[in-house]
Amino acid sequence: MVSSNKLILKQIAHSYGFSVIKIRSYSSQYKNIAAFRVTTNQGNYMVKPFIGSRSRLIRLSSYAARLHRKGFRSMPKWLKTRSGKHWVKKRGKLYYVTEWIEGRKIHKSGSKEDFAELGGALANLHSVSRSFRLAPRSDSSIRKLGKRHAAFCSQLKILRGKSTKAGRWFQEHGDHCMKLCRDALDSLGTERIRSRMLKESRRPPLVHGDVTIPNVLKSKERTYLIDWDGMGPGSSYFDLVVAITNTAGFNIPNMAAFLSGYEQVCPLTRSEKKLISALYRIPREAWHVCRYASSGRKYEHLLDIVEKSWNARMEAIQWMDIWSQQRAREEKHAAMD
């Protein structure tokens, strides 16, 4: 597969002023070839095929350049071509090139230090990009969650009447899933939290959108986030909840370290903590299983993950609730003093 791409990679390297010495392809969960490591006469670089429009790639490269100028270093630097662009088009396909990061993966059972650094890196992204004055975005996140919950309830009624593996699991846990969702939506619907979400939507930060274990690298110098194709203006709270779920899983010490690292950069108010706690209790994976099973898609692997982690998830949700209340107590005591 690499040999079939050799010529085009040489052409891309030439656009950047490099000479190719060696090529290696890398796969991802969804693609046989997600990126290339290209060894050149000037060092190692990553060449990434981009799936999307040219206008979106231009926006991404602009965001990357602005982040780098502002001192954000948890992102591989995007290189410019000899003509000054951050991307190229060859044979009808779009590509961009970044520095190659040598580092190790973190693990869900890894050290608390790794997760504290990861939380700090994500907080730096949100903090730095708030100064960009990006265009306001629609404050529809909570409404969308409400619609997804309604769809889940509708699908659940049908699914629980079936004798499939998913049907049996939701017969036992479906009511609990619905309660988790209702409690979360009730919290998200309070005036203080809605005001916080509206305020952020008027001046949104950049979010990574896909912070997962495969998209985190720990080098000797720092923690890097990689694969920025989903970057854009968004909600830092959604980004944080997705990131902590995808990386720390339901390991409470690592969750605590992640949030501590985040707050070292971006301290969270009482309402923000309640917002994060509410978002965290939504059983998104159960939603996916229900949707997949209802539409005839394969769901068994995801359901196995949900089953095995369910008790740990419940403990993590309880811990997150306590974490959100601690700040409230601290603020109350500070006011009394």
Using brief descriptors, characterize the structure shown.
337 residues; alpha+beta; five-stranded antiparallel sheet; two-stranded antiparallel sheet; 57% helix; globular
The overall pLDDT, averaged over residues, is 92
Strand order of the largest sheet: 1-2-3-5-4
Q: Which structural class is indicated by helix and strand composition?
A: alpha+beta
> In percent terms, what proportion of residues is strand?
5-15%
Radius of gyration: 22 Å
The quaternary state of the protein chains shown equals: single chain
Q: Poorly predicted ranges (pLDDT <50, ≥5 residues)?
A: 332-337
For the biggest sheet, the summary is: 5 strands, antiparallel
Instruction: Count helical runs.
Output: 11
Helix content: 55-70%
Global morphology: globular
What is the distance, rounded to the nearest whole angstrom, between the alpha carbons of the first and last residues?
A: 68 Å
The helix-strand sequence is: HEEEHEEHHHHEEEEHHHHH
- Number of DSSP-assigned strands: 9
Structure characterization notes:
The chain has 337 residues and is an alpha+beta fold. Helices cover 57% and strands 12% of the residues. The protein is built from 11 helices and 9 strands. The protein has helices at 2-16, 54-69, 112-129, 141-159, 165-188, 191-202, 236-248, 252-265, 270-280, 284-295, 300-336, and strands at 20-26, 35-40, 43-50, 88-90, 93-99, 206-207, 216-218, 223-225, 232-233. The strands form 3 sheets. A 5-stranded antiparallel β-sheet has the order 1-2-3-5-4, covered by helices on one side. Helix 3 (112-129) packs antiparallel against helix 7, helix 3 packs parallel to helix 8 and helix 5 runs antiparallel to helix 9 (270-280). The longest helix has 37 residues, at 300-336. The protein is globular and about 60 Å long. 33% of the residues are buried. The model is unreliable at 332-337 (pLDDT under 50).
